[in-house]
Amino acid sequence: MNIKSLLLGSAAALIAVSGARAADAVVVAEPEPAEYVKICDVYGAGYFYIPGTETCLRIGGYIRYDASFGDGNRVLDGTKAIDSQDGGINDTWNKNARFTLKTWTGQETELGTLKTYTETRFNFGSVTTAKGADGFAIDSEAGNKAADLHFAWIQLGGLRVGKDETAYDSFIGYAGNVVQDTIIPYGLKDTNLISYYFDAGNGFSAVASLEEGSGAETIDSYVPHVVGGVKYKGDWGAITAVGAYNSNWEEWAGKARLDIKATSDLTLFAMVGYGTDDNKATNFYKPWTGNFAVWGGGTYTVNKKVQLNAQVSYTDFQDFAVAANVAYTIVPGYTITAEVDYFKNFDDKFEDGVGGIVRFQRSF
């Protein structure tokens, strides 16, 4: 073996050792299998599985722009017409832009379906800055408003806890598909609650709810407000009744409602409310004036794009209101609604009021 062969052999050995060490130092892991978002159709359209969990999530909401004029955005509170929460009243247009974010979750457990729902609203629009002697707003300016956590509840099986609208309203339903459905109000909404929903599966359902109230109607002792309701629903429509006890004022109130599917294109409803006023004229569950109030109306679907909606309401305090609109869906998810509203007290304690509102809403 000569010197040349010895050097070549040594170089080859060094290269082999170096290659082995390099191979030991660099380890390329096999790629993890990609986990794509999977559709969850158990709870309806729009849900998907949160990766790595058995929880289904849906995200939605809407963007809305309202422009009202005249005496729109007013409700009757038993003493005078007052501005609603969406805007002030003055001699020009009143505008409000809203972004609403909603989330739903669902998961099956050994104790039943575990669900959550949240809804947060962000508003920019007309804010009242001055009112006249009669209590009506006479000036307003545009600005951001406080964010509104409208819903935030958890439900396991039939038991629901959290922030919700009172079951006194949500179980029986809103008073029609008009924008201003509370010119004569049928209930106040926001509350923390503990509710139990029962569904017999044959069209019969019921609810019992312990509620905190809100604002000045928040409970002032350990005794909660109490709400109960029953419903029967069939192909023809539904019949519903709810009752409530206001623990602050020791007052009772109740509502009964009939919904009828008159034809495939026409739905009608009638709702009557009665409440005591021994200790307070109006309260959380009887915000209308007098003891009795009635609401009625319906929706007629002209075609896939056009709906006609109307509501008429009256109290034994002689408050009277009418609201009617045309809702036109330009493309799926985008609807423009034009509405005219009228209210009057026939005892001449209030002036007549006529107003209107145009709503643009993109829902997703």
Automatic annotation (TrEMBL):
Keywords per UniProt: Cell outer membrane, Ion transport, Membrane, Porin, Signal, Transmembrane, Transmembrane beta strand, Transport
Signal peptide range: 1-22
Stored InterPro entries: Porin_alphabac (IPR003684)
Membrane topology: Multi-pass membrane protein
Chain coiled-coil ranges: none
Aminoacyl-tRNA synthetase as UniProt keyword: no
Localization, UniProt: Cell outer membrane
Keyword Zinc: no
Domain commentary: Consists of 16-stranded beta-barrel sheets, with large surface-exposed loops, that form a transmembrane pore at the center of each barrel. The pore is partially ocluded by a peptide loop that folds into the pore lumen.
Function: Forms passive diffusion pores that allow small molecular weight hydrophilic materials across the outer membrane.
UniProt record similarity statement: Belongs to the alphaproteobacteria porin family.
Protein name: Porin
